[in-house]
Amino acid sequence: MRALLPTTATLPLFDVAASRRIEARALVHSPDLMERAGLAVAKLALATRRGDGPVWVACGPGNNGGDGRVAARRLAEAGVPVHIGNEAPTHPSLAIDALLGLGLNRAPTAAMLATFAALQACGAPILAVDLPSGLLADTGQPAGARAVRADHTLTLLTLKPGLFTGEGRTHCGRIWFDDLGIAPDEPATADLLGPSPAPARSPTSHKGSHGQVVVVGGAPGMQGAARLAARAALASGAGRVYAELLGVADDEPADPGRPELMRGRATVLPQAVGVVGCGAGARIADALPHLLKALPRLVIDADALNAIAAEPALHGLLRARPVGSTVLTPHPLEAARLLGRDTAALQADRLGAARELADRLACTVVLKGSGSVIASPRERPALCASGGPALATAGSGDVLAGWLGGLWAQQPDASAHAIACAGVDTHARAGEVPGVLRAGDLVERLAGHA
Ligand SMILES: NC(=O)C1=CN([C@@H]2O[C@H](COP(=O)(O)OP(=O)(O)OC[C@H]3O[C@@H](n4cnc5c(N)ncnc54)[C@H](O)[C@@H]3O)[C@@H](O)[C@H]2O)[C@@H](O)CC1
Ligand SMILES: Nc1ncnc2c1ncn2[C@@H]1O[C@H](COP(=O)(O)OP(=O)(O)O)[C@@H](O)[C@H]1O
Known about the structure:
The chain has 450 residues and is an alpha/beta fold. The chain has helices spanning 16-29, 33-48, 63-77, 110-121, 168-172, 223-236, 284-294, 302-310, 312-320, 332-339, 343-347, 350-361, 396-410, 416-430, 439-449; strands at 2-3, 11-13, 55-59, 82-84, 94-98, 126-129, 152-156, 174-178, 190-192, 212-217, 240-245, 262-263, 273-276, 297-300, 326-328, 364-367, 372-375, 382-384. Its EC number is 4.2.1.136, 5.1.99.6.
C-alpha cells in the first residue's frame, strides 16, 4: 500500500469493465482477494484514525461492504473498538465508508444519502474503501445528488479514472493504492501521467537548434494572454519566440517586460510552431484558414477554438491536417461548444468527451480542468492528476498553450500526443502550490523546470 500522488511514474488506469475482468481472472488463483482488501483497509485505518474512539464501519450490500466487514474483523482482532452500522457511534476515531464501490449503478436512494450525510457529520476522518461511495469510477461524477467526500481513499486492485478527473479529486482526499498483489494482465484503459524530463540541450546547440514559436493572438485589450503564451514558450527553451499581436502597432515591442521576445508574422515563419488563439478575439477566424493550411505544427487555444466551433468549414481544414500535427487545448466550455453540447453533459464524462472530440476533429485534445485528459485518435488516452486550484486563475491556460508550443519547437519529431502529455503534466506540477499562482509566476516556475 502506498500514497499515490504526486506520481513518480506513468501508471495504468482501468475502467470498471476492465477492473472486473482483472478481478475475475485474479480470483481464479487468488480467492482470498477480499481478505487482502480488508486487511489493507484495516492497516490504513490504524494509521489514520484520530484518537481512541471506535472505528465506525458503514457497510453496503455488495463486496465493497464485504471489504469493510473484513476490515472491521481485523481491527477488532487488533483490539480496536469497532461499530458496524448505518449510524455513527459516539465520538468515532474514524469512519470507514464501505457502502458502494465499483458496483454503483444508479443514483443513491434516500436511505443511502442519509448514511452519506451521517458519515459527513460524524466528526471523524473518513476513509473510503476503493472509491468514495456514490462516485462513478469511470467518470469521477456522482451518480446522484451527492457522493461521500472522504479524507482518504484506499483504492484496491486497480486505479480507476474517476479518482483523478471530474469531481474525483474533491471526493477522494488523499489517495492510497494497494494492488492486492495482483499484476494487471490486460492493457490499461488510460495512462495516469508521471513526470516528464525537460528536452535535452546539447552542449554545442545554438538558438537555431531549439526551434521557433509564433504566438498569434493579443487583440486590443487582450495582449496579456498572447504575451503569457510567448513568455511560456521562451521559458520552455524554444530558440526564438515571435508574437503576432493583432492589437498592437507593428513598431511596438512584443513585450516590454520581456525583451527576448520578437514581433513576427506566421505567414513569414513557415517552420515555426503556431500557438494560436490566446486573447485573439473574433478576428482570428479570418486568419485561421491560412494558419491551418500553412503551419506544420499548431497548438490551438481559446478564441481560435471558439471560431472553429462556430464555423463548420474550419472542421474540414482541421481534419485535413497531417496526423499528429495539431493540439487543441479547450477548457470544458470550449470543448462543449466544439461538441455542440452543454458543459455539464461534457463534464459528466470527460474521458469520453475528449476521445470523441479527438476522433471528430482528428487532433490531439487536451481537455483542461481538474484531471486534464489528453486524447488523440488511435492513442491510449492519458489523465493528469497533477496540479490543483492554484491554477484556477486567469492566464494559466495561455501559459499551457505557449509551453506546449515551446516544447514542440524543440522536439519536432515528437507526436502531438507525446508533447501534450509531457507539457500538461509539467505545467500542472509547476502549479502545485498553496493558494493562488499568478500566471506570470507560473511561467517563472516553469522556467525553473526547463
Ligand atoms: N470480490 C473481491 O474479491 C474483491 C472485491 N473488491 C471490492 O468489491 C467492490 C465491488 O463489489 P460489488 O460488485 O459487489 O459492488 P458494490 O459493493 O460496490 O455495490 C454493489 C451493490 O450495491 C447496490 N447498489 C448499487 N448502486 C446503488 C445505489 N445507488 N444505492 C444503493 N445500492 C446500490 C447493488 O445493487 C449491489 O447490491 C469493489 O469496489 C471493492 O471494494 C475489491 O476489493 C477487489 C477484490
Ligand atoms: N482545480 C484545478 N486543478 C487542476 N488544474 C486546474 C484547476 N483549475 C485550473 N486548472 C488548470 O489551469 C489551466 C486553466 O486554463 P484556462 O481555463 O484556459 O484558463 P485561462 O483561459 O484563463 O488561461 C488549465 O491548464 C487547467 O487544467
